[in-house]
Amino acid sequence: MNVNLRTVFLLLLLCVGLPLVAQEERIVLGDERTDEYFPLLKGKRVAIFSNHTGLVGDKHLLDVLVEAGFDVTAIFSPEHGFRGNADAGEHVSASTDPKTGVPILSLYDGRAQRPSAESMKKFDVLVADIQDVGLRFYTYYISLCRLMDACAEYDIPVVVLDRPNPNGHYVDGPILDMKFRSGVGWLPIPVVHGMTLGELARMANGEGWLPQGRRCRLTVVPCQGYTHATEYRLPVPPSPNLPDMRSVYLYASLCPFEGTPVSLGRGTAHPFQMYGHPAMKGCSFSFTPHSMPGAKNPPLKDQLCYGVDLSVLSEAEARATGFDLKYVVDAYRRTGLGEDFFRPFFDLLMGTDRVRKLILEGRTADEIRSTWAAEVEAFKERRRPYLLYAEADGTVGGEVRP
What we know:
Layout: H1 5-16, H2 34-41, E1 45-50, E2 55-56, E3 59-60, H3 61-67, E4 71-76, E5 95-96, E6 103-105, H4 117-120, E7 125-129, H5 140-153, E8 158-161, H6 197-206, E9 218-221, H7 245-254, E10 274-277, E11 285-287, E12 305-309, H8 315-321, H9 326-335, H10 344-350, H11 354-360, H12 365-370, H13 373-383
Parallel strand pairs: 1-4, 1-7, 4-6, 7-8, 8-9
Antiparallel strand pairs: 2-3, 5-6, 10-12, 11-12
Helix pairs in contact: 5-6, 7-8
């Protein structure tokens, strides 16, 4: 009988009573699985939707495709630009990638904030490879949906090279009321949807959420070794003001401050890891936002703010925070601004006016969360057929819908 050395070693461990520790499987990203998507690109003009996060190992997807001999004819980039260094909402003009000479086209040179007909004639297949963070107001998925809609109209296939969602372990927040649809909320999903970009693309396509109910020819190349319970550390910051995992985890709870006069740390070394305002009372911590790369004109620039420092939390504590309105409620009460605490943008971020009204009524964060619990559970069931990976509770999604 032939027994290899590894088997002998495992048997010895069992005999002496030592525990067997399974080696953690490395996550293989969709863009690494070239055998799955290279055949789909052969002989076609290729456009990519990506930015600085679209790395295949230590190389960018663009370089990988060009070196493999593919005809890459166009690049689309989202908010913050192809190199990921523009401010939030900053206009990014069309240009050319200096290394490859491939033109970077505008996502908004056509009608309805979509690529123009001229841009759509430049390619035969679109490949998307970009790191999302799983929040409804994080705009990369909106750019992808607009591209999917354009591709559906022009019958151009879309290939999404999937990546893990660092906030994929939970679902929380109110469902977007489509009356509040905007550039920071485009689909009827919770604030935290718990899906990868590939899964969300499948759901938007399958549910007919693209304009006029169009559906594109969509292929998602899934990750290997990933589940929604997996703690995935992003190899590079996804945007200028999410510099580390603590900010990525706290982003859900602190982004609502964008719709208030309160600073959330833009213009400091720890954006999305603190909050404060000159009028906040009873705070020993203070900070002053300044102009800096990625935050050229931050809210409350050069003003001394009193507030709360969340950068002292461990990554585990920040991850466990999830989506919690306790920080917004705290700042609302401490500033004493009343209704002036809220700006119209707050309702767009929340996707509803309900949250603002409940805070004004004096409700606690837990009381407010209870108002959307049922709709979150209904959404989790609705999304189940589109999931590609096991959920945090170990269950697996249903059958794939056409």
